[in-house]
Amino acid sequence: MASDSAPAYCLMAQIRERQNDKKNALLEWEKCLAFATEYNADEYAWVHMAKRCLQAQQCLETKKGDD
């Protein structure tokens, strides 16, 4: 069941990643995935992003050279 809080968790996950806070980003992605649904057009991309990030245990591969 979807929740109005899904976008907040998904956006917070992206913010945590930009802050290079990988541990908390992964926690936010877990919450995002728990509340978001693929059946909501606005959340569809976040669900797939969360799955990919959680599988890889990090999301911003493009930031590797920015450390």
What does this structure look like?
The chain has about 70 residues and is mostly helical. Helices cover about 60% and strands about 0% of the residues. The chain has helices at about 5-20, 20-35, 45-55. The longest helix has 14 residues, at about 20-35. The chain is globular and about 30 Å long.
List keywords for this structure.
67 residues, mainly alpha, 0% strand, globular, disordered C terminus
Condensed summary:
This protein is mostly helical. The protein has helices at 6-18, 22-35, 44-56. The longest helix is centred in the middle third of the chain and has 14 residues, at 22-35.
Overall shape: globular
Overall mean confidence score, pLDDT: 83
Structural class: mainly alpha
Low-confidence stretches: 62-67
Radius of gyration: 11 Å
Biggest beta-sheet profile: none
> Considering DSSP H and I runs of 4 or more, what fraction of the residues is helical?
55-70%
Order of helices and strands: HHH
Q: Strands, helices and their partners?
A:
Blueprint: H1 6-18, H2 22-35, H3 44-56
Helix pairs in contact: 1-2, 2-3
